[in-house]
Amino acid sequence: MSTSSRCAACRHLRRRCPSDCIFAPYFPANDPHRFACVHKIYGSSKVGNMLQDLPVELRAEAADAICIEAECRVQDPVYGCVRMISLLQQQIHNAESQLVKARAEIAVLGSHAQELRHHGQDI
Amino acid sequence: MGGSSPCASCKLLRRRCAKDCVFAPYFPSDDPQKFAMVHKVFGASNVSKMLQELPVHQRADAVSSLVYEANARVRDPVYGCVGAISYLQNQVSQLQMQLAVAQAEILCIQMQQDPPAASFPTQIDHHQDHDRSLLLSCSNINPQLLAAGFASSSSNAIQDPLKKESLWT
Fold first, then answer.
1. ipTM (interface pTM)
2. Which of A40, B30, B80, B165 is buried deepest, with most CB atoms within 10 A?
3. Mapped to the 3 state alphabet, what secondary structure does B143-168 carry?
4. Nearest CB to B167; choose among A42, A86, A105
């Protein structure tokens, strides 16, 4: 039996790859690292169940998202992709503070300009 | 012989809670939902392996982030945390645009008031440039781009991310 047609998941799990393999469309044989990460973090049965619980048209996006999260967790076993969320929240906080300051400065400059105009009219 | 009550994990897994249970410090019995969520998404044995591979002083943070990810995945079974990242990236982009508009407006007003002496009105936060380039490297949900952005971010100092309570609720 040819083993070259097995998906990355079935290769990793050392089993036959059935024609209706839940993993095959999303874990092609040419990217073994992708399934290896997902298997390490979630395990094959959890991922299989997650995909099976979703309508077919959403499974590709879900597989991609799961892979990203697993890759992040492998690279950073403490924070995973939550580190990115923390960084972004910090960015938002900084940008909001700067925006408040900028708008306050606009208000001050605007009222200063108005004062100058009134002065100019009085003279 | 008084036995302390089993932790939430051992209760759910219906087993005896050993004195050195790896879950017990992080999954107290009064919050069964926390472990239930993590078990649903990651599985108890995977969580146990992950915790055992970490030094003890990092395990609490790891549990918090796993709980956060699990919650996100349960709320959004398709995109999970990645959906939240995408949403926050959009927010950052919008805020940066608004900031650029405001700074341009300041410059205009200053130039109108005092053309020869016009200078940059606000201190541009140069740290933002570094973070901006970091975030631009993961500006969409493309896995390669996002992973690249993550890889470059992991070398940055994150200032007490777990002190932001909203992250962990």
1. 0.84
2. B80
3. HHHHHHHHHHHCCCCCCCHHHCHHHH
4. A86
Q: Which residues from B are below 8 Å from A67, CB to CB?
A: 143
* pLDDT tens digit sequence for B82-102: 999 999 999 999 999 999 999
Find the residue in B nearest to A49 (Cα). Answer: B41
Distance CA A82, CA B29 (A): 25
Higher pLDDT, B165 or B108: B108
> A59 and B59 in contact (C-beta within 8 Å)?
no
pLDDT of residue A22: 96
- Model confidence band, residue A94 (pLDDT cutoffs 50, 70, 90): very high
Q: Is the whole model's pTM more than 0.80, yes or no?
A: no
Nearest by CB to A65, from B43, B82, B147: name it: B82
Return the domain boundaries, chain A.
Answer: 1-75, 81-122
DSSP string covering B29-40? TT-HHHHHHHHH
Contact A42 B43 (CB under 8 A): yes
